[in-house]
Amino acid sequence: MTEPSQSMSAFKVQSKKKSIAAWCFYDWANSAFTTLVVTFLYATFFAENFAEDSGRGTALWSRSITLSALAVAGLAPIAGRLADCGDRRRYLIACVLVCVGFTTALTFVQPGQPYAVITALALFIVANVAFELSLVFYNAFLPSLAAPDQIGKISGYGWGLGYVGGLCTLGIALLGFVSETPWFGMPTENGFNIRATNLLVAGWFLVFAIPTFIYLRDDDTSRSPVRLRGVFSDLLQTFRSLRKYREISIFLIARLLYNDGLVTIFAFGGIYAAGTFGFTFQELATFGIVINLGAGIGALLFGFVDDRIGGKKTIAVSLVALIAATILGALAPNRTWFWVAAVLVGVFAGPNQSASRSLMARLVPSQHEGEFFGVFAFSGKVTAFLGPLLLGLVADAYGQRMGMASLLVFFVFGGIILWRVDEKRDAISSSIR
């Protein structure tokens, strides 16, 4: 009896390792979308080519970010409840396929075509919403994959791999798409070589998500079937029950603020670099590579720090660094100081995001991971329009530098509220019911 038992135990350990590796690898796969489409290349290409001027293009892009954020805010709690009712893996695959399909379609929308602006923005919004909803299902796996004292490390591995993946896609884009002589004789008319980076994103995302599709599966077969009426009633119960979980509530309010600032920096960092410092597309790709390299190193190293000092303190350290980076970036007298600020953002953005995910995983009630990670996504998006809106209004009135400086309010007040969280008070094994 001992040998079969030992063999079964070894099999379960090996299966768990594969599941953890597959979970981490999804960050590697999905990073291409946020890096090339949302942040560095396509966002800047749209702003500079789809409208009469870059200012108007920036405003239109900010509205698409706002609309997709509001859509995610409304849909993420529902997605979280569905994750607890049914097959997370199946929903995850569906979201990935939608994101990949609509990202591919972006390639073929040409500036100057009839309805090009509306078409491009509509395709991006759907792709971005699908991408964000996939994270609800993906993040909900974390508490069941890792012990509480290893969640920070595993979350850090995922974020680190994600930034390395973004680094690789940026390198490929820089060498093969954005260069003066694109690969395979790719045409450059109407920016096709830049638009074709969407094909790189779609292919990278789909191919490297396959291990996640294969090895990441739900262990719990006792989950209840999906009933739409039950989903909405359970959602109401979830939001009402947040009053019982004081630390989660405070943390979500804090994240609602500081995440707005961070998301806005990433969404408009490339546009700011091009508008204020005259970065070309080649320089933007290099800029993205440096930031992703720093972020990957930061996420990997601070994963161990997270498990040692806790998620709250790790986030607090990152916020202090992000405040300093924002001030430096807004006041930078030349490109050199701007590069210093950008690297500082990169190094501490990874730990901020990774530690936020790990802190939530430690606080979330067991058996309701999907619901609470849905609310987690909700908190990250429900006011996500405020950052772009504030930046746009201030930049329009006082210039891009003041627009960037305005984001300090999110980091400062988010940090103040975060400090009230007692991460040991809500047990991870709590029950929502």
Describe this structure in words.
This protein is mostly helical and 433 residues long. It has a single domain, classed as MFS general substrate transporter like domains (Growth Hormone, Chain: A). It is 79% helix and 0% strand. The protein has 18 helices and no strands. The chain is globular and about 55 Å long.
Main attributes of the structure:
disordered C terminus, mainly alpha, 18 helices, Growth Hormone, Chain: A, single chain, about 425 residues, globular
Produce a short descriptive summary.
The chain has helices at 2-40, 42-49, 54-85, 88-106, 116-139, 142-145, 151-176, 192-195, 197-215, 228-241, 246-277, 281-309, 311-331, 335-363, 369-381, 386-398, 400-405, 408-418. It is mainly α and 433 residues long. The longest helix is centred in the N-terminal third of the chain and has 39 residues, at 2-40.
CATH topology description: Growth Hormone, Chain: A
Radius of gyration: 21 Å
* CATH class group: Mainly Alpha
> What are the segments in which pLDDT stays under 50 over at least 5 consecutive residues?
4-13, 426-433
Shape: globular
Annotated CATH homologous superfamily:
MFS general substrate transporter like domains
Count of folded domains: 1
Proportion in β-strands: under 5%
Q: Helix tally?
A: 18
Helical coverage, percent range: over 70%
Q: What would you say the CATH architecture is? A: Up-down Bundle
Sheet with the most strands?
A: none
**Termini separation (Å)?**
39 Å
Number of strands: 0
Q: Which structural class matches the secondary elements?
A: mainly alpha
What is the mean predicted local confidence, pLDDT?
Answer: 80
Order of helices and strands: HHHHHHHHHHHHHHHHHH
